[in-house]
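Interim report, section 4.2 (structural modelling).
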Amino acid sequence: MLWLISAQLVNGIAIGMIYALMAFGLSIIKGLLNIPNFAHGALYALGAYLCYSAVSAGLPFPAGLFVAFAGAALAGLVLDRLVVRFVRAGGYLPQLITLFGAALVIEQLLLIGWGTIGLSYSPPELLRGSIDLGFTLVPRYIAFASLCSALVISGVWLLIERTRFGAWVRAGIERPEMTQSLGINVDLLLIAGMMLGAGLAGLAGGLALPLMGATSTMGGDMMAIAFVVLVIGGLGSLYGAIAAGLMVGVVQSLMTVAAPAASTAIIYLVMIVILLVRPQGLFGER
Amino acid sequence: MPKGGALAAADIVRAAAMVAAVAALPLVIPVNIATEVLIYGIFAMATNLLVGTAGLYSFGQAAFFGAGGYVAGYFLAQGFVSLPLALLLAGAGGGVLAALIGALSIRRTGIYFMMLTFAFNQLVFYVIYSWQSVTGGEDGLAGIRRGTIELPFLGTLKFDDNRAFYALAAVLFLVSMAILIRMTRSPFGLVLDAARQNARRTTSLGYSVHALQLAAFVIAGVISGIAGALFGMLYRIMPIDAVHWTGSAYVVFMVLIGGQRSMLGPVLGAAIFIWLQGLFSLVWTRWPLLLGLFVIVVMIYLPGGLLDLFARVSAWRSRLREQRR
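Predicted structure of the assembly:
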């Protein structure tokens, strides 16, 4: 039993890191553009498919992850320039319905490009098997995915907290008009934010590929969870999403031991309980 | 606000036109599609009470539509036949669920409210999905029968005939529309409208904004639940997809393409949406792509919805007429 629980705990951390990547991207886009990105799930699916194609074409897996990141970021750029830009003036309801429409288009394009059958991919030789920690076995790929997510999140954290670009981004989130009047091109900043957020979604998709495969509908459920993570973490907090993502992943995985059928419903219950106690989310400010 | 004889007369003309349009609809399109248009029309009007009038951007309305559909569907699938009771249960199911969800989320505003209702929608979805013994889980709730109405002198009304069922949907549609229009023009609706424009100022005028918003949320839940019950009876199955959050997105989209400023807008939106969905799915198996493109194009070029287009066209025509003079 302890064996099973610790295995699920490890699994939960890995899934939680992927949730954290998703929600972090959402959080950046929400912070800068002030919209809930309803195409985030579709970008996640796009990342998984791009990663699959890259490794099928003979590229090493890390390169596949990069392709997933870059491809989704590019899709984010296209989305922003061709679509979101024109509805920005209209309040966020038209914006998110537009993004929802874009998500429909992307998901169908994935079906056209890669076919209707779900794809699966097993991790490269080096990442198969598991590491024995004495009390439990950690599958190598799960260790790799967690490490990789942690590195990327730290990298983005450094970028936002320790660089000039990051200072602009933070300024753009806090006071867009003031930032603009200081001579910083907020429009470019918004594009960069959209690309970064979208790229993180794509990377999460690439990392999830060996764990869950690729299907065109994989994005919808993942996006719903990412929204929950964002709400639990607190909407105003850029980093709350990371802690909340880990928490949701672990809770969900442990619940599969106790009550498998309820493992997804439970995270919504967790969200409700947290909101009753702390309406602003765990790390949000009022 | 209609006051005095002239405007009331205009209202009567409009009401007559609406009844005529509803009566003519099944002559133009297949009767089951016409019924679906009316059902989604009811659902979209209820959603517009929140989105257009109260400014509550709920993204979880499919939960109430689904709750009504499953409650009434379960009741009718168990062998009960009373249609009024089924509709009552559906309305109560949608209303109680809306009261619970609303109580927990109504105080949050803007994006937060939207995300909360969205997450609650998913919770309801997963509960229905996992509760297989009652709801049928992934396969949906099958075996729903259309109930009957017992009338004292006329005997038993049956709705197995699709035209009879259309008549039932038409009556409920017209009644919902009348109630909702009346509601938006009542002091209740005006306060909701004021709170949409400035919640803080409305509160300081002494109105309990949150309580009224919660009331609107519950009313929308009741009406959506009844629409869901009709949907379950129409195809005699309640599909799990009807509760998924995409359903909530679709109904908000119907409201936006039609126009939020009157109850006619959402109905137009629902009609166009159902029609386009049918058309696109005949043309191409990848029809959601066309639907998505349509959504994007409408949002970019017609942010005020189709009613806005009509207003623009008539303004353009009157300008043309003046130039000619």
